[in-house]
Design a protein that fits this description.
The complex is a heterodimer of chains A (79) and B (175). With 79 residues, chain A is of the alpha+beta class. Chain A is 29% helix and 30% strand. Chain A is built from 2 helices and 4 strands, in the order E-H-E-H-E-E. Chain A is globular, with a radius of gyration of 11 Å. The model of chain A has no long low-confidence stretch (mean pLDDT 95). By secondary structure, chain B is α/β, with parallel strands linked by helices. Chain B has a domain of 105 residues: DsrEFH-like (Hypothetical Protein Ychn, Chain: A), CATH 3.40.1260. Chain B is built from 7 helices and 5 strands; from the N terminus they run βαβααααβαβαβ. In chain B, strand 3, helix 6 and strand 4 form a beta-alpha-beta unit. Chain B is globular, with a radius of gyration of 18 Å. Classes of the chains: A alpha+beta (79), B alpha/beta (175). At the A-B interface, helix 1 and helix 2 of A face helix 1 and helix 5 of B.
């Protein structure tokens, strides 16, 4: 297990593009810098989308896990 | 911030939305909300048949007529049944009263079943994230729309104003 603590969990299961990134953005906005968001998605497009989202926004994608149909993303708010 | 172009400014997306059917209402709002979620500046210019997408009450419909690439699928039944692409000749569809309403209902149901947000939800997300929704003044005059017909967040401008905005965009798309 990685060395970080999850502060907020966002369940996006069942939602398709673009709602996982939209909801991730909205949730990140409510969090404090340094906190970690866990976003859970079942959208197969979420893996490339969240990597692009992190690259564009500058928030840090600590870990992205593919658990066979369920994807977990751990994102640290950096700014 | 990560979403900057080479000039230290936020990235910018400039979209032209020119089609008002339910299927074509999706791409501008999907792209705009995704871009805004990535901290991009986003403006959508609604012109010609795209303009009604600014109306307070959306009533976008889909027509399979003259749209031969549109798959006709049923949003219920077994997976195998749902995957059947029903061959519907255009001539037949043109002659069934209410076919457009049926097709619109089927598409909305299919999208909902699959977890796609409604156009209303996507537009709301765009507004929440500060996407600029710009109505085309000329189209308003031609088709008889008033500013009051649109959501209060909508702006009104002409081609020159939109082009000035798009001139500084990193991505510009005509939809």
């Amino acid at each position: 297990m990685a060395d970080f603590t999850v502060n907020t969990v966002l369940d996006c299961k069942g939602l398709l593009c673009p709602m996982p990134v939209v909801k991730t953005k909205k949730t990140i906005n409510t969090m404090a810098i340094g906190e970690v968001l866990e976003m859970i998605s079942t959208d197969p497009g979420a893996m490339p989308d969240m990597q692009a989202w992190a690259k564009q926004t500058g928030h840090e994608l600590l870990e992205a896990k593919d658990e066979g149909g369920v994807y977990r993303f751990f994102i640290k708010k950096t700014h | 911030m990560g979403s900057e172009n080479g000039n230290g400014k936020p990235r910018r997306l400039a979209l032209i939305s020119s089609k008002g059917t339910l299927d074509w209402a999706y791409p501008p709002f999907i792209l705009a909300s995704a871009a805004a979620a990535m901290d991009w500046e986003v403006g959508i210019f609604f012109t010609f048949y795209g303009l009604p997408l600014l109306k307070k009450e959306l009533d976008a419909k889909v027509s399979p007529l003259g749209n031969p690439a549109m798959p006709m699928k049923m949003p219920f039944g077994s997976e195998g049944f749902q995957n059947i692409n029903w061959p519907m000749p255009n001539l037949l569809m043109a002659n069934i009263p209410g076919f457009e309403t049926v097709a619109t209902g089927l598409m909305k149901k299919m999208f909902k079943n699959k977890g796609v947000a409604t156009v209303e939800e996507l537009r709301e997300a765009c507004i929440d994230m500060g996407v600029r929704l710009i109505g085309c003044q000329m189209t308003m005059d031609v088709f008889g729309f008033d500013r009051e017909d649109f959501v209060p967040e909508a702006e009104v401008a002409g081609a020159a104003a939109f082009l000035a905005y798009a001139a500084d965009a990193d991505v510009s798309l005509f939809i």
